[in-house]
Write a structure and sequence with these properties.
This protein is an alpha/beta fold. The chain is built from nine helices and 14 strands. The chain has helices spanning 9-24, 30-41, 45-59, 111-121, 125-128, 152-163, 181-192, 272-282, 328-335; strands spanning 69-77, 80-90, 100-104, 130-134, 174-179, 198-204, 218-220, 229-231, 238-244, 255-262, 265-269, 295-296, 300-305, 310-315. The strands form three sheets. It has a ten-stranded mixed sheet, with helices on both faces. A hairpin with an 8-residue loop joins strand 7 (218-220) and strand 8 (229-231).
């Protein structure tokens, strides 16, 4: 029987082996260590215990890989304290780090259900990006007079900062896409953020609203949602907008919405074609606003600036369902664009 306070060598060996495989799983060095295992096992169990501890403590510091699943960010604001905000991740297998593709649902939407539908419809895209689906507080995003007053820009920035720490996440060429109320947040994010990880923005059925651009300058939301501060957004980005010519909720020709409220009545929008031009102008376009489409078909008119770095799709027969006409091919073609 061993002296009191001491353990058998076999117990130490088992503990070492357990620690070894716990810390080494998913590690790039696992194969090398497994090959060395017989050599290490030929030493005394105490020596092996020390080596396993040394290796394990070193490898714990290595960046881990992002896994598919649900994650949270905690935030404080006027409506909540230390509130857990959810987002969902689909991380495809890849030998190289992949950029982020973040999707923002519309008002009343659900991030997890959005993820399931989006990935099913966009199989190629979902293999090229680490897909992220963020959940809006009260199922909405904080634009002008929405129910949510949450700090949504900071939420998205916190997600990006956290996820780019993982070894399989690229820290550039990120994409931010939103639908309706989510697209309004994409516009506001592009206006305000100083985080330079993003290369492409995609807004579906929400061009700039009249609070975000007053005809003279882009506007920061501000803590009071009064949109009084003029700001200069980051340059060198690509932007796609998809709008429905028959949309009454977000009027294609601009003016007040039939249903979205604002502080002074109904939320007013910039003309969709004008909105695309304002972004193109900011990103470096020097010409006049296009008054004729660059391309046209039965289903859509396409207004393209900067060789496609800024592109607007007018879905001729669609209303607030215009996003249904946006195909994976169109998305992939746009994401291949660059704006030097």
């Amino acid at each position: 029987m061993p002296p009191k306070g001491k353990r058998k060598n076999s117990e130490l060996a088992l503990e070492a082996i357990d620690l070894f495989f716990t810390t080494m799983i998913s590690c790039l060095y696992a194969l090398l260590i497994i090959l060395l295992l017989p050599i290490l096992m030929s030493k005394s169990s105490r020596t092996f215990h020390f080596i396993a501890l040394l290796i394990g403590s070193h490898l714990v510091g290595l960046a881990s890989e992002l896994q598919s699943g649900s994650y949270t960010i905690n935030q404080d604001w006027s409506q909540e304290q230390d509130y857990e905000r959810s987002y969902f991740v689909h991380a495809p297998d890849s030998v190289e780090p992949l950029p982020l593709f973040i999707f923002l649902h519309g008002n009343g939407g659900n991030a997890e259900r959005s993820m399931q539908g989006f990935i099913k419809r966009h199989k190629k895209l979902s293999k090229r990006y680490n897909m992220v689906f963020a959940q809006g507080y009260l199922k909405s995003w904080n634009i002008v007079s929405e129910r949510s007053q949450a700090p949504d820009r900071e939420f998205i920035e916190a997600i990006v900062t956290k996820l780019t720490e993982y070894s399989n996440v690229k820290d550039s060429d990120a994409v931010l896409m939103g639908s309706s109320n989510g697209a309004a947040l994409v516009n506001q994010f592009a206006i305000e953020t100083k985080l330079d990880h993003f290369s492409h923005y995609i807004t579906v059925v929400s061009q700039l609203n009249a609070w975000q651009h007053d005809g003279t300058a882009f506007k920061a939301k501000g803590l009071d949602n009064n949109y009084t501060e003029s700001v200069v957004p980051l340059k060198g980005k690509c932007l796609m907008n998809v709008s429905g010519a028959n949309d009454k909720l977000v009027p294609y020709a601009g003016g007040p919405s039939k249903g979205i409220r604002a502080k002074d009545g109904k939320l007013a929008f910039v003309d969709a074609e004008r909105s695309a031009f304002l972004w193109a102008q900011h990103y470096g376009y020097k010409g006049e606003q296009l008054n004729q489409p660059s391309e046209s078909s039965e289903e859509m008119n396409v207004f393209s600036y900067l060789d496609g770095a800024v592109v607007h799709y007018n879905m001729k027969t669609r209303a607030h369902n215009a996003g249904g006409a946006l195909t994976e091919v169109m998305l992939l073609e746009f994401l291949n664009q660059s704006n030097p």
